[in-house]
Amino acid sequence: MDYNKRSSVSTVPNAAPIRVGFIGLSSFKGWAVKTHYPAILQLSSQFQITALYNPDIESALNTIQHLKLSNATAFPSLESFASSADVDMIVLSIQVAQNYDVLIPLLEYSKKNPNLKYLFVEWALACSVQQAETIYKAAAQRGLQTIISLQGRKSPYILRAKELISEGYIGDINSIEIAGNGGWYGYERPQKSPSYIFELGKGVDLVTTAFGHTIDLLQYMTGSYFSRINSMIFNNIPEQEVIDEHGVRTGQKVPKTVPDHLLFQGTLLKGNVPVSCSFKGGKPTKKFTKNLVIDIHGTKGDLKLEGDAGFAEISNLVLYYSGVRANDYPVANGQAGYDAGKEIMEVYHLRNYNAVNGNIFRLYQSIADFHYNTKQIPNLPSQFIMQGFEFEGFPTLMDALILHRLVDNVYRSNILGSTLDVTNICHYP
Amino acid sequence: MDYNKRSSVSTVPNAAPIRVGFIGLSSFKGWAVKTHYPAILQLSSQFQITALYNPDIESALNTIQHLKLSNATAFPSLESFASSADVDMIVLSIQVAQNYDVLIPLLEYSKKNPNLKYLFVEWALACSVQQAETIYKAAAQRGLQTIISLQGRKSPYILRAKELISEGYIGDINSIEIAGNGGWYGYERPQKSPSYIFELGKGVDLVTTAFGHTIDLLQYMTGSYFSRINSMIFNNIPEQEVIDEHGVRTGQKVPKTVPDHLLFQGTLLKGNVPVSCSFKGGKPTKKFTKNLVIDIHGTKGDLKLEGDAGFAEISNLVLYYSGVRANDYPVANGQAGYDAGKEIMEVYHLRNYNAVNGNIFRLYQSIADFHYNTKQIPNLPSQFIMQGFEFEGFPTLMDALILHRLVDNVYRSNILGSTLDVTNICHYP
C-alpha cells in the first residue's frame, strides 16, 4: 500500500509555511471551520492562515480572535485581500452560487500579488460548465496551481481500491453497479437547512454534488472516463414537508426544484465496461442495503465499497475485496514457492476514521507534499494542469472542468432523451 | 396470504381431466420432462397426456413407453396431431426458433379439432415481435385460451411481494434496483451446451430470456408497465472458451453473438418510479452479492428478493420485507387497540421449494383452477385475453406479446441511442 502510506511532510525541517488567505472561514458555522481549519491546524508547520476576506470586517476579526489566528489580517475589500503579498495560497469555501462573482475579480486583482501560487476552490467550482470553463481559463492565465476539493480521491478506501484495481487484483473489470441514497433531497426538509440547496441552478444538487463526487471517484479508481452515457432525472417530490430539530412535522410545505432521483448508465472508455448507477433522495428507509454501495466486478475478483451515508467523499467506508493475488510474493518461512493466483480476501476499514475531516486533511497533506517535494519525486513539475488518474498530486480545476462537462451531459441526456457520446469531454479546452 | 393458498383443485370430484397433446416431450432429455411432466403427473386427476407429436415416431413411442403414458397416441404428422379430437390442450415446448414454423400450420390444422380449448406455449413464444404478433393473432382467431410460460408469476415469493406491495405495506414505491448475473453468457461455454443459445436471433438470449422473465415479474409485482426506457447492450465476450464437464478448458474457442451485458433503466408508468437494472453474463465471481437482487424501496418500507441464480423464474428465492403494517388487525389477548402503523419485518423462504418444477406446477394448477372454476369466482369469463396484473389466472400470449414489444424496444433503444417512450406497448394490437 505504497500510496496509502503516511505523508512524510512533517519531517521537513525549517521550511517556511504556505501562507493561506481564506475566503469563507467563520468560527461560528459552516464547512470550512469543521474541515479546512482543523487540517491547517494539524499541519501548522506547513500552512499558516495569514489573511481572511470578509466584507463584514467585524465577522472576520471575530473569527481571528476566536480561532487565535495570530498571524492573520482581516480584509473587508476583495481587491486588497487579493493584492496582499503575504498570501501564497487562496482558499475559497463559500456557497457555490457565489464562486464565479468572487473568483473572476479575485483572479484579476491577484495579479498584484507576486507570491500567489495556489488557488484552492470547493467543488462544484461553479453553477454551470460555462462558468467553470471561464474560471478555469482565468486561473490558468494567472499561472496558478489549482486545487479542487474532490477530496474523496484522498480517501484511504478509494486509494486502496484504486491500487487493487491497477495492480490486477480483480483482473479486467467487466461490470460496475452503484446505488446511493442521499436523504436530504427527500420528502422532509429540516427547518434549519438553507433553502438554496433545494433550488436548481445553485450548484448544489443530487447530480452535481452526490453523483458528481461519486462518479469522479469511480473514474479515478478505474482509471477511465466514460464513452457513452444516458440519464433520466426525476423530481418526484416537488414539495417537501418541513420538520423541526426533533424530526417532528411542522405542517409547513416548501417547494423543491432540485432532482430527487438520477438514473445513470454508461460505458467506461477503458474496456467498454457497463456502469449502472441509481442515486436517490427520498427517505433512506433502506433496511437491506447501505446508503452507498459501489460494486466493481472483474474477471478475477470483486470489490465492494459500502457507506452509511450516500456521499462517498465524506463517509467512512468499508472496502471488501475478494479475488486472486495478482503478483508473486515470496512465501513466508523460507518456502521456495510463490503465491500468485492464490485466492485472497480483505476487509479494509478504519474504525475511527473521520472521513469528513480526514479526506480534506489528506488533500492539504498532498498540497504540502507537492510544495515541499517531500516525496522527492524526480522531475517534479513546478505546476501540473490536471491530476487525471495519478496516485500522487491532487485534483485541479481541470479535473473539475472535466467533471462539470460530464454533469452537463447528464442533464442534457435527460432533456434530449438521448444516449450521448462523451468520449471527448476529457480533452483540454 | 389469500393468493398464495393451496389450490383446491384436487377436491373436484369425478371431473374429466384436460386431455393434453404435447409437442416437445421426450423421456430422454429436455425441459419438458423435467418440469411439465412432473406437474401433469402430480395433477393426474386434472391433466392427462393423450397425444404426442414427433416427426420421429420411434422417439414418441419410446417416450410413451418410458413414461408409461398409457392413454397417449404418437403422431408423426402435425396435421393428424392437430386434428385429433382427443386433445383439449396443446402444449408446445421446443426450441423457440422453431415455434413459428410449427404454430402457424398447427393453428390452421387444429380447426378440425372441435374440442381444442387451450394452447400453452413456452416463453419466448417467438424470435421477434413480428412473429409473436402473428402467432398471437392466429391463436386469437382460432378462439383458443392461451397460456405462456412466464411461470415466475406463480412463484410464491413473487406473489407474496405483489401482495405486500398492493396492500400498501411499503407505501408508495419510489425506487427500484435490479442486478442479475446469468453465468451462461460468459467467458466459458460448457461443451454440452447447445450452440443456438449463443446465437443472436434464436429467441434465447440475455435480453429476451433472463431480462424478459425478470422484468415481467417486476411489472407484475408493481402492477405497472413502463413509460420510458433506455438500454445499452454489450457483447464484450465475442469468443468463449469451451470447458468440459469437469470445468477444465479444452483449448477450443467458439464465437458468441448474443449479448453478455444489458444496462436498462426506465420509469414505471404508475408513480413515475425510477428503475435501474444491470444484467450480466460473465463469470459470476460475485462474492459480496447474490446473482439476483431485486430491491424495491417505498415510502414506508423495503422489499428485497434474492436468488442464487440470475434467473428469477427458476430460482428459489428469499424475500425480505421491512416496513409498517398497512392494515388494522385486532391485537391479540383481547386488547382493544389495533396495530396499523406498527413496524414489522418478514423473511419469507421455503427451504425445500424446487422453483424449476414448482413454478411450472403452479401454472398448471392455475389452468386447472380456471378450467374447473375451482375457486368459484363469480362471473368467470369462459376466456380472457390477458392476465395483466391480476393475481388469479395465468399469463397469456397477449402478456407475451406485450413483453416482446418491451424486449424489442430494449434492442431498439440500444441501436438508436435513444430513450424511448413505451407508454403504448401495453395496448391491444
From TrEMBL, chains A, B:
Species annotation: Naumovozyma castellii
Q: Where is the Gal80p-like C-terminal domain?
A: 156-307
Name the chain's protein.
Uncharacterized protein
Spell out the Gene3D superfamilies in the cross-references: Dihydrodipicolinate Reductase, domain 2, NAD(P)-binding Rossmann-like Domain
Originating gene = NCAS0G03360
Q: What is the lineage of its organism?
A: Eukaryota, Fungi, Dikarya, Ascomycota, Saccharomycotina
Name the SUPFAM superfamilies for this protein: Glyceraldehyde-3-phosphate dehydrogenase-like, C-terminal domain, NAD(P)-binding Rossmann-fold domains
> Pfam families, per this entry?
Gal80p_C-like, GFO_IDH_MocA
One example of the protein's molecular function in GO is: nucleotide binding
**What InterPro entries does its record include?**
Gal80p-like_C (IPR055080), Gfo/Idh/MocA-like_OxRdtase_N (IPR000683), Gfo/Idh/MocA_oxidoreduct (IPR051317), NAD(P)-bd_dom_sf (IPR036291)
Leader sequence segment? none
PANTHER family per record: CONSERVED EXPRESSED OXIDOREDUCTASE (EUROFUNG), GALACTOSE_LACTOSE METABOLISM REGULATORY PROTEIN GAL80
Q: Organism's domain of life?
A: Eukaryota
According to the entry, every stretch annotated as the Gfo/Idh/MocA-like oxidoreductase N-terminal domain falls at 18-145
